[in-house]
TrEMBL record:
Protein name: Acetamidase/formamidase family protein
SUPFAM superfamilies: Acetamidase/Formamidase-like
Top-level division of the source organism's lineage: Bacteria
Gene Ontology MF terms: hydrolase activity, acting on carbon-nitrogen (but not peptide) bonds, in linear amides
InterPro entries for this protein: FmdA_AmdA (IPR004304)
Source organism of this protein record: Hymenobacter cyanobacteriorum
Length: 335
């Protein structure tokens, strides 16, 4: 990171953004959505998100009424401007200086559990193999914040790695209101379980201010998210936003403290996987100055090509490449 960006980050303010009927975007990404918060590049937002469900569904699955969050009741009762998707998102956040063609760097500084439960559910016509499960089922799953596990069943504990399934910016204005379910060039419902605290997401900007939305909190998830939900819950995140004029992307990209991540998105999973590989090759050629031939070979011998999700209409694939591969090259250059 350039020195000017480090100084900017150190001096940046922190904002608090609650989830209320006035700050909720139910089921869409839209360049015409009015901002609920305006911030400067380099500033941080502690943003609250809600479980994507309704009190009736949660109570129907056995959750005591007293454990339903009051904000969820308020939003379900008062938000009428909703759809076409079903996710309850917080936003959008307007980042000053962001313009189409830029990249919005989102540093995920912290992701915290907000409630002591999650749910998992599948429907009669959703998920990856609905032909095998022609009915709907929903389960409330206790979360143990101290042990950071979900008590899935007696004797079955799932480690928690909280992340936001949906983080994105406004799509191009010509796209109008976009369904929150399929991911796209704007990011959105990526459902990438690597985007935990300490990771950074890079999103191509399509509208003034970027207009960032976030939600679909997961306490954990498996790659593929095969029944259409993970450990769905409410989360609080601390996110820092930096406008990058020096980067230009066509698809979202990410990195963790130990790895680089490229992404591919397409209704055809094979084509999504091809794009993930092409994006990593482009990254290696541009940022690591490898030839395309060498980049392709490195992806094959050291890159892990994974399925992100197969249930959101637009399928997702991603490639992970360890940063440690480049340690010796850095030392030779004196970096």
């Amino acid at each position: 990171m350039a020195l000017s960006l480090r100084v900017q980050a150190q001096k940046a303010a922190t904002h608090e953004l609650a989830i209320t009927p006035a700050t909720a975007a139910w089921g869409y990404y839209d360049a015409a959505a009015p901002p609920v918060l305006r911030i400067k590049s380099g500033e941080t937002v502690r943003v609250h998100t809600l479980i994507t469900s309704t009190p009736a569904r949660l109570e129907g699955a056995g959750l005591p009424a007293a454990q339903v969050e009051p904000n969820l009741r308020d939003i379900v009762e008062h938000v009428t401007n909703k759809g076409p998707g079903g996710h309850i998102l917080t936003g959008p956040i307007f980042v000053e200086g962001a313009e189409p063609g830029d990249v919005l760097e989102v540093r995920i500084q912290a992701v915290e559990l907000a409630i002591p439960y999650a749910y998992n559910a599948f429907g009669a016509k959703s998920g990856f193999i609905p032909e095998d499960f022609g009915y709907a089922k929903m389960r409330i799953i206790p979360l143990d914040k101290k042990k950071m596990v979900a008590h899935f069943l007696p004797g079955v504990e799932v480690p928690l790695r909280p992340f936001f399934g949906s983080m994105g910016v406004a799509p191009p204005a010509a796209s109008g209101r976009v369904n929150s379910a399929p991911p796209g060039i704007h990011g959105g419902n990526l459902d990438n379980k690597e985007l935990v605290a300490g990771s950074t997401l890079y999103l191509p900007v399509h509208a003034a201010g970027a207009l960032f939305f976030v939600g679909d909190g997961h306490a954990g998830q498996g790659n593929g998210e095969v029944d259409i939900t993970g450990l769905e819950t409410s989360l609080t995140g601390t996110l820092q936003f930096i406008v990058r004029k020096d980067m230009h992307l066509t698809l979202p990209r990410a990195e963790t403290p130990t790895a680089y991540i490229s992404m591919g998105l397409n209704e055809d999973l094979t084509l999504a996987a091809k794009d993930a590989v092409r994006e990593m090759i482009a990254f290696l050629a541009t940022e690591k100055h490898l030839s395309r031939d060498d980049a392709y070979m490195l992806c094959s011998v050291a890159g892990d090509l994974d399925v992100t999700q197969v249930v959101d209409g637009t399928r997702g694939a991603h490639m992970i490449l360890a940063k440690s591969l480049f340690g010796k090259a850095k030392k030779q250059k004196g970096n």
